[in-house]
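Need the bound structure for NAP, inputs here:
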Amino acid sequence: MHTQRLEDRVSIVTGAARGIGEGIARAMAREGANVILFGRRDTVKETAKSISDSGQKAIGFKVDVTDAGGVEQAVQQVLKQFGKVDILVNNAGIYPYMPFVEMPDEVRDSVIDVNIKGVWNCTKAVIPSMIKQKYGKIINISSVTGPMVSAKGATIYSASKGAVSGFTRALALEVAEHGINVNAICPGYVDTPGERGGGSRLGMSADEYIKKLAQGIPMKRLGAIDEVGDLAVFLASEESKYITGAEIVIDGGNIIQEIKG
Ligand SMILES: NC(=O)c1ccc[n+]([C@@H]2O[C@H](COP(=O)([O-])OP(=O)(O)OC[C@H]3O[C@@H](n4cnc5c(N)ncnc54)[C@H](OP(=O)(O)O)[C@@H]3O)[C@@H](O)[C@H]2O)c1
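Answer from helper R.:
Posting the output first, comments after.
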């Protein structure tokens, strides 16, 4: 019989109402974890219900990762209800692209609040119990954009994901001796509702935009949310127990291309 790789594990996935977070929540639930989906709107409860309706263990919590007090309260609730947190996936993120000269400070601050402070808040809330139990897996959803490559309009997004890289390495060093692994996933283009929204910026329909992006990728398609889910399961499982402080790219070969002369 197939043993489930995350049986009895308790996992929090942020920004899990849709997109990559949903893919990760579904993949972890399939592997037997108790998955707690954090999302800033009630839709997160519907996503959780659709997972639990198929017989897996999932529950949705309305939590905005930018609200440190709310995050702390929600994590305490999870600890009370499930007794522990084994896995945290910091996935919630926003990516408003805009030229640097036009970007209002409010947009800059919103990216810092979600993509950096959100990761900080959730990690801060779960780490003490992980240290106490001498076990934990923190998985940060970074990006190729910032840590490895970049694009016009992505100044603050790149800066935020570069920060996630540095945070991942520094924290990995601090908590390694406590049995906690801290790693980052760096996706390239993944077909999500958020990514599909990028078409409107260029005056294209979502389908036209996705098709155009796919043409430039060596595998001729975008990544699927369950493919990122599979990688997150690997990083949450015992198969990766000697991996920490790493950034793993999942992009269909997109960033290794040389421009032809
Ligand atoms: N898709 C890609 O191509 C790609 C590539 C590289 C990296 N990433 C990263 O992957 C992560 C997920 O991206 P995605 O494409 O799946 O995005 P998405 O389709 O927009 O989904 C993101 C989810 O996060 C939620 N969220 C946003 N801010 C939040 C907050 N403050 N508190 C709680 N939840 C919040 C959103 O809630 P609402 O439903 O309320 O908006 C949404 O459900 C992000 O960190 C992104 O930077 C994505």
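Comments: Residues 191-222 form one domain. DSSP finds eight helices and seven strands in the chain.
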